[in-house]
Amino acid sequence: MNIHEDTLADDFCPRPVAESRTVYEGLVWNVARDSVDFAPGVRFSRDYVSHTGAVAILAFTVEGEAIVIRQYRHPAGAHMWELPAGLLDKEGEDPAAAALRELEEETGYTAQSARHLLDYYPSAGGSNEKIRVYVAHECTKASTIDFTRVDEEAEILTRTVPLDDLESAALSGRLHNSALLIATLAYTSRVRKGEDVAI
């Protein structure tokens, strides 16, 4: 890509990998080490978290309030307000379907469909994790949920909040979850620009 083009866009052009191996196998994800042929005569190695990828969903009730969850996150040592989200670890599962499944499992709300909002890499220098974010409207309480929450998910709290309040909390620095921040600010920006954000 010509970096002087008018369109500002990332250029996905992976460099050749001479060798790739797993140097650590974890409970949820692994650490890989790649030897990268960066340029003629230039080879270097990089360790990174090899991740399955994930989905998150900015979901709204029939009344138009955003559905958020509070969950304990040990690495941050905090109870954080987040979007319903989860790993793409079921082989062959459509990401939109995964987002709707996570919505139901974590909040008890269900939606008929979800629309893609954006993709992002939370830490592209240290992980290949890509998070795909969706939006769902007119969500209602599911009649039954065939899922048992365990570990930190057992303490999940669900809350609905007006979009303006969610945006204010995001901009004030009171919230810190990346998917929640990015989705909220991207969505509210599109609403203000008059873009079609309905399903």
From TrEMBL:
This is NUDIX hydrolase. GO terms for molecular function: hydrolase activity. It holds the Pfam family NUDIX. PROSITE patterns: NUDIX. InterPro entries: NUDIX_hydrolase-like_dom_sf (IPR015797), NUDIX_hydrolase_dom (IPR000086). PANTHER family: NUDIX HYDROLASE DOMAIN-CONTAINING PROTEIN, UDP/ADP-SUGAR PYROPHOSPHATASE. Keywords: Hydrolase.
